[in-house]
Amino acid sequence: MTALAREWVTNNAAWARAMPRLSILIPFLRDDPTRLLAALGREAASAEIILLDDGTGDPDLSARIDAAVQASPLPARFVRLTVNEGRSRGRNRLARHARADRFLFIDADMLPDSDHFLADWLALIDRRDPAAAFGGFSLDQTPITREHALHRAMALKSDCVTAADRAKAPEKHVFTANLLVRRDVFDGVAFDEAFTGWGWEDVEWAIRVADLWPIVHVDIPASHLGLDPAPVMARKYEQSAANFARVVAAHRAVVQTYPSYRVARLLRHMPLRGVWRPLLKAVALAEVLPTRLRAFALRLYRAALYAEAV
Hints:
Elements: E1 7-11, E2 22-28, H1 34-41, E3 47-53, H2 59-71, E4 76-81, H3 87-97, E5 102-106, E6 110-112, H4 117-127, E7 132-134, E8 137-138, H5 149-158, H6 163-166, E9 178-182, H7 183-188, H8 201-210, E10 215-217, E11 222-224, H9 230-255, H10 259-268, H11 273-285, H12 291-306
Parallel strand pairs: 2-3, 2-5, 3-4, 7-10, 8-11
Antiparallel strand pairs: 1-4, 5-9, 6-11, 7-9
Protein backbone atom coordinates (compact mmCIF):
# COMPACT_ATOMS: atom_id res chain seq x y z
CA MET A 1 0.00 0.00 0.00
CA THR A 2 1.29 3.45 -0.89
CA ALA A 3 1.93 5.68 2.12
CA LEU A 4 -0.36 8.68 2.44
CA ALA A 5 1.38 12.02 2.07
CA ARG A 6 1.54 14.24 5.13
CA GLU A 7 2.00 17.94 4.55
CA TRP A 8 3.99 20.53 6.43
CA VAL A 9 2.95 24.15 5.87
CA THR A 10 4.80 27.40 6.53
CA ASN A 11 3.65 30.92 5.65
CA ASN A 12 5.51 34.20 5.41
CA ALA A 13 4.57 37.36 7.27
CA ALA A 14 2.55 38.76 4.38
CA TRP A 15 0.27 35.71 4.13
CA ALA A 16 -2.19 36.27 6.97
CA ARG A 17 -3.75 39.57 5.91
CA ALA A 18 -3.60 39.20 2.15
CA MET A 19 -6.68 39.23 -0.07
CA PRO A 20 -5.17 38.14 -3.40
CA ARG A 21 -6.82 38.31 -6.79
CA LEU A 22 -4.54 35.60 -8.17
CA SER A 23 -3.09 32.44 -6.63
CA ILE A 24 0.20 31.38 -8.24
CA LEU A 25 0.54 27.61 -7.83
CA ILE A 26 4.03 26.11 -8.19
CA PRO A 27 4.52 22.34 -7.83
CA PHE A 28 7.98 20.81 -7.94
CA LEU A 29 9.95 17.65 -7.36
CA ARG A 30 13.70 18.15 -6.88
CA ASP A 31 13.66 21.45 -8.82
CA ASP A 32 14.68 24.68 -7.11
CA PRO A 33 11.94 27.32 -7.54
CA THR A 34 13.79 30.15 -5.75
CA ARG A 35 14.75 31.94 -8.98
CA LEU A 36 11.11 31.93 -10.11
CA LEU A 37 9.98 33.05 -6.66
CA ALA A 38 12.39 36.00 -6.77
CA ALA A 39 11.26 37.01 -10.28
CA LEU A 40 7.59 36.97 -9.30
CA GLY A 41 8.36 38.94 -6.14
CA ARG A 42 9.73 41.82 -8.19
CA GLU A 43 6.19 42.64 -9.34
CA ALA A 44 3.88 44.55 -7.02
CA ALA A 45 0.85 42.42 -7.86
CA SER A 46 -2.29 41.42 -5.98
CA ALA A 47 -1.19 37.81 -5.93
CA GLU A 48 -0.16 35.06 -3.55
CA ILE A 49 2.33 32.27 -4.16
CA ILE A 50 1.89 28.68 -3.02
CA LEU A 51 4.73 26.21 -3.54
CA LEU A 52 4.33 22.45 -3.22
CA ASP A 53 7.32 20.18 -2.71
CA ASP A 54 5.92 16.86 -3.90
CA GLY A 55 8.10 14.63 -1.74
CA THR A 56 11.65 15.70 -2.69
CA GLY A 57 12.97 14.93 0.79
CA ASP A 58 15.98 17.28 0.54
CA PRO A 59 16.45 19.28 3.78
CA ASP A 60 18.97 21.66 2.22
CA LEU A 61 16.64 22.52 -0.67
CA SER A 62 13.74 22.93 1.76
CA ALA A 63 15.79 25.34 3.88
CA ARG A 64 16.69 27.48 0.83
CA ILE A 65 13.08 27.61 -0.32
CA ASP A 66 11.76 28.40 3.13
CA ALA A 67 14.22 31.31 3.42
CA ALA A 68 13.12 32.59 0.00
CA VAL A 69 9.46 32.31 0.99
CA GLN A 70 10.04 34.26 4.17
CA ALA A 71 11.88 36.97 2.22
CA SER A 72 9.27 37.28 -0.53
CA PRO A 73 7.35 40.57 -0.63
CA LEU A 74 4.32 38.66 -1.94
CA PRO A 75 2.19 36.54 0.40
CA ALA A 76 3.64 33.05 0.17
CA ARG A 77 2.99 29.56 1.52
CA PHE A 78 5.36 26.59 1.35
CA VAL A 79 3.78 23.12 1.47
CA ARG A 80 6.04 20.08 1.85
CA LEU A 81 4.83 16.51 1.36
CA THR A 82 6.45 13.53 3.02
CA VAL A 83 5.93 11.31 -0.06
CA ASN A 84 5.41 11.95 -3.75
CA GLU A 85 1.76 12.22 -4.81
CA GLY A 86 2.24 12.77 -8.53
CA ARG A 87 1.48 15.55 -10.97
CA SER A 88 -2.33 15.46 -10.88
CA ARG A 89 -2.80 15.00 -7.15
CA GLY A 90 -0.19 17.62 -6.38
CA ARG A 91 -1.90 20.24 -8.54
CA ASN A 92 -5.29 19.42 -7.07
CA ARG A 93 -3.79 19.81 -3.60
CA LEU A 94 -2.32 23.19 -4.54
CA ALA A 95 -5.75 24.40 -5.66
CA ARG A 96 -7.18 23.51 -2.24
CA HIS A 97 -4.63 25.84 -0.61
CA ALA A 98 -5.44 28.73 -2.98
CA ARG A 99 -7.52 31.66 -1.68
CA ALA A 100 -8.05 33.66 -4.88
CA ASP A 101 -10.71 33.01 -7.50
CA ARG A 102 -8.11 32.74 -10.28
CA PHE A 103 -5.23 30.24 -10.34
CA LEU A 104 -2.01 30.51 -12.30
CA PHE A 105 -0.22 27.16 -12.51
CA ILE A 106 3.45 27.62 -13.34
CA ASP A 107 6.24 25.07 -13.09
CA ALA A 108 9.26 25.65 -10.90
CA ASP A 109 11.65 25.46 -13.86
CA MET A 110 9.97 28.35 -15.68
CA LEU A 111 10.94 32.04 -15.65
CA PRO A 112 8.74 34.96 -16.82
CA ASP A 113 9.91 36.56 -20.05
CA SER A 114 8.95 40.09 -18.97
CA ASP A 115 8.94 42.18 -15.83
CA HIS A 116 5.18 42.68 -16.23
CA PHE A 117 4.24 39.00 -16.43
CA LEU A 118 1.75 39.05 -13.55
CA ALA A 119 0.43 42.46 -14.61
CA ASP A 120 -0.34 41.01 -18.04
CA TRP A 121 -2.23 38.08 -16.52
CA LEU A 122 -4.21 40.37 -14.22
CA ALA A 123 -5.00 42.66 -17.15
CA LEU A 124 -6.31 39.65 -19.09
CA ILE A 125 -8.53 38.76 -16.15
CA ASP A 126 -9.89 42.31 -16.05
CA ARG A 127 -10.42 42.39 -19.80
CA ARG A 128 -11.76 38.92 -20.58
CA ASP A 129 -11.88 36.81 -17.39
CA PRO A 130 -11.30 33.58 -19.34
CA ALA A 131 -12.33 30.21 -17.98
CA ALA A 132 -8.86 28.94 -18.86
CA ALA A 133 -5.95 30.49 -20.71
CA PHE A 134 -2.48 29.30 -21.66
CA GLY A 135 0.28 31.90 -21.92
CA GLY A 136 2.85 29.99 -23.93
CA PHE A 137 6.41 28.71 -23.74
CA SER A 138 9.67 30.15 -24.91
CA LEU A 139 13.34 29.27 -24.65
CA ASP A 140 14.45 32.90 -24.66
CA GLN A 141 16.27 32.63 -21.32
CA THR A 142 17.25 28.96 -21.57
CA PRO A 143 20.99 28.26 -21.81
CA ILE A 144 22.15 26.60 -25.04
CA THR A 145 24.03 23.38 -24.27
CA ARG A 146 25.02 20.33 -26.26
CA GLU A 147 23.40 18.05 -23.69
CA HIS A 148 20.01 19.67 -24.26
CA ALA A 149 20.24 20.21 -28.02
CA LEU A 150 17.66 17.54 -28.83
CA HIS A 151 15.06 18.81 -26.37
CA ARG A 152 15.65 22.38 -27.56
CA ALA A 153 15.09 21.43 -31.19
CA MET A 154 11.90 19.52 -30.41
CA ALA A 155 10.53 22.20 -28.10
CA LEU A 156 11.12 24.98 -30.62
CA LYS A 157 9.19 23.02 -33.24
CA SER A 158 6.20 21.83 -31.22
CA ASP A 159 5.95 23.75 -27.93
CA CYS A 160 7.19 27.30 -28.56
CA VAL A 161 4.40 28.37 -30.89
CA THR A 162 2.32 31.53 -31.04
CA ALA A 163 -1.10 31.95 -29.51
CA ALA A 164 -2.65 32.05 -32.98
CA ASP A 165 -1.16 28.66 -33.86
CA ARG A 166 -2.06 27.13 -30.49
CA ALA A 167 -5.64 28.31 -30.84
CA LYS A 168 -6.13 26.03 -33.86
CA ALA A 169 -6.23 23.06 -31.44
CA PRO A 170 -6.79 24.80 -28.10
CA GLU A 171 -7.02 21.74 -25.85
CA LYS A 172 -3.95 20.08 -27.37
CA HIS A 173 -1.64 23.01 -26.60
CA VAL A 174 -2.41 23.29 -22.88
CA PHE A 175 0.36 22.69 -20.38
CA THR A 176 0.29 23.38 -16.66
CA ALA A 177 3.59 25.24 -16.94
CA ASN A 178 1.88 28.63 -17.56
CA LEU A 179 -1.85 28.10 -17.21
CA LEU A 180 -4.58 30.41 -15.88
CA VAL A 181 -7.78 28.79 -14.56
CA ARG A 182 -10.86 30.25 -12.91
CA ARG A 183 -11.80 28.66 -9.59
CA ASP A 184 -15.31 27.71 -10.70
CA VAL A 185 -13.85 25.90 -13.71
CA PHE A 186 -11.38 23.98 -11.60
CA ASP A 187 -14.07 23.15 -9.05
CA GLY A 188 -15.99 21.53 -11.88
CA VAL A 189 -13.04 19.91 -13.70
CA ALA A 190 -10.00 18.96 -11.62
CA PHE A 191 -7.04 16.89 -12.78
CA ASP A 192 -7.68 13.16 -13.07
CA GLU A 193 -5.71 11.60 -10.21
CA ALA A 194 -5.68 8.19 -11.90
CA PHE A 195 -2.85 9.45 -14.12
CA THR A 196 0.58 8.36 -12.91
CA GLY A 197 4.10 9.19 -14.03
CA TRP A 198 4.70 11.80 -16.70
CA GLY A 199 2.56 13.13 -19.51
CA TRP A 200 -0.90 13.79 -20.92
CA GLU A 201 -2.76 14.63 -17.70
CA ASP A 202 -2.85 18.31 -18.69
CA VAL A 203 -4.14 17.66 -22.22
CA GLU A 204 -6.78 15.26 -20.88
CA TRP A 205 -7.90 17.90 -18.40
CA ALA A 206 -8.10 20.46 -21.21
CA ILE A 207 -10.20 18.15 -23.36
CA ARG A 208 -12.78 17.93 -20.58
CA VAL A 209 -12.68 21.68 -19.97
CA ALA A 210 -13.09 22.43 -23.69
CA ASP A 211 -16.40 20.55 -23.68
CA LEU A 212 -17.78 23.15 -21.27
CA TRP A 213 -15.81 26.38 -21.67
CA PRO A 214 -13.62 28.03 -24.31
CA ILE A 215 -9.86 27.79 -23.78
CA VAL A 216 -8.07 31.03 -24.62
CA HIS A 217 -4.50 31.21 -25.94
CA VAL A 218 -2.47 34.36 -25.36
CA ASP A 219 1.15 35.43 -25.67
CA ILE A 220 2.25 35.94 -22.04
CA PRO A 221 5.24 33.63 -22.28
CA ALA A 222 7.67 32.20 -19.79
CA SER A 223 10.95 30.47 -20.57
CA HIS A 224 11.30 26.77 -19.89
CA LEU A 225 14.70 26.48 -18.20
CA GLY A 226 14.51 22.78 -17.36
CA LEU A 227 15.32 21.07 -20.65
CA ASP A 228 16.12 17.37 -20.37
CA PRO A 229 19.00 15.32 -21.74
CA ALA A 230 17.99 12.87 -24.46
CA PRO A 231 17.96 9.75 -22.20
CA VAL A 232 15.59 11.49 -19.78
CA MET A 233 13.30 12.48 -22.65
CA ALA A 234 13.20 8.87 -23.84
CA ARG A 235 12.33 7.64 -20.33
CA LYS A 236 9.55 10.21 -20.04
CA TYR A 237 8.07 9.11 -23.35
CA GLU A 238 8.21 5.51 -22.16
CA GLN A 239 6.37 6.51 -18.98
CA SER A 240 3.80 8.47 -20.95
CA ALA A 241 2.62 5.54 -23.08
CA ALA A 242 0.18 4.31 -20.43
CA ASN A 243 -1.18 7.81 -19.95
CA PHE A 244 -1.61 8.21 -23.70
CA ALA A 245 -3.59 4.97 -23.75
CA ARG A 246 -5.82 6.34 -21.01
CA VAL A 247 -6.53 9.51 -23.00
CA VAL A 248 -7.26 7.52 -26.16
CA ALA A 249 -9.71 5.29 -24.28
CA ALA A 250 -11.59 8.30 -22.89
CA HIS A 251 -11.37 10.77 -25.79
CA ARG A 252 -10.57 8.90 -29.00
CA ALA A 253 -12.65 11.24 -31.18
CA VAL A 254 -10.44 14.16 -30.15
CA VAL A 255 -7.07 12.42 -29.94
CA GLN A 256 -7.38 10.73 -33.32
CA THR A 257 -6.98 14.17 -34.92
CA TYR A 258 -3.49 14.57 -33.39
CA PRO A 259 -0.42 13.76 -35.52
CA SER A 260 0.99 11.55 -32.74
CA TYR A 261 -2.10 9.34 -32.95
CA ARG A 262 -2.10 9.16 -36.75
CA VAL A 263 1.58 8.20 -36.91
CA ALA A 264 1.06 5.63 -34.14
CA ARG A 265 -1.76 4.08 -36.18
CA LEU A 266 0.52 3.75 -39.17
CA LEU A 267 3.32 2.19 -37.14
CA ARG A 268 0.94 -0.22 -35.48
CA HIS A 269 0.66 -2.18 -38.71
CA MET A 270 4.40 -2.42 -39.28
CA PRO A 271 5.93 -5.79 -38.35
CA LEU A 272 8.87 -6.39 -36.02
CA ARG A 273 8.38 -3.32 -33.82
CA GLY A 274 10.45 -5.05 -31.18
CA VAL A 275 13.40 -4.99 -33.59
CA TRP A 276 13.33 -1.50 -35.10
CA ARG A 277 11.89 0.47 -32.18
CA PRO A 278 15.13 0.16 -30.12
CA LEU A 279 17.07 1.29 -33.18
CA LEU A 280 15.05 4.51 -33.30
CA LYS A 281 15.91 5.13 -29.67
CA ALA A 282 19.59 4.48 -30.34
CA VAL A 283 19.60 7.03 -33.17
CA ALA A 284 17.87 9.61 -30.95
CA LEU A 285 20.45 9.16 -28.20
CA ALA A 286 23.49 9.37 -30.49
CA GLU A 287 24.93 12.88 -29.98
CA VAL A 288 27.28 12.48 -32.98
CA LEU A 289 24.32 12.46 -35.37
CA PRO A 290 22.61 15.61 -36.69
CA THR A 291 20.04 17.01 -34.28
CA ARG A 292 17.27 17.06 -36.90
CA LEU A 293 17.76 13.34 -37.54
CA ARG A 294 17.78 12.60 -33.82
CA ALA A 295 14.58 14.59 -33.31
CA PHE A 296 12.86 12.73 -36.15
CA ALA A 297 13.95 9.41 -34.67
CA LEU A 298 12.72 10.33 -31.18
CA ARG A 299 9.32 11.39 -32.51
CA LEU A 300 9.02 8.07 -34.33
CA TYR A 301 10.14 6.24 -31.19
CA ARG A 302 7.41 7.96 -29.21
CA ALA A 303 4.84 7.08 -31.87
CA ALA A 304 6.03 3.47 -31.85
CA LEU A 305 5.49 3.36 -28.10
CA TYR A 306 2.02 4.83 -28.55
CA ALA A 307 1.21 2.29 -31.27
CA GLU A 308 0.34 -0.19 -28.54
CA ALA A 309 -2.57 2.05 -27.49
CA VAL A 310 -4.22 2.77 -30.85
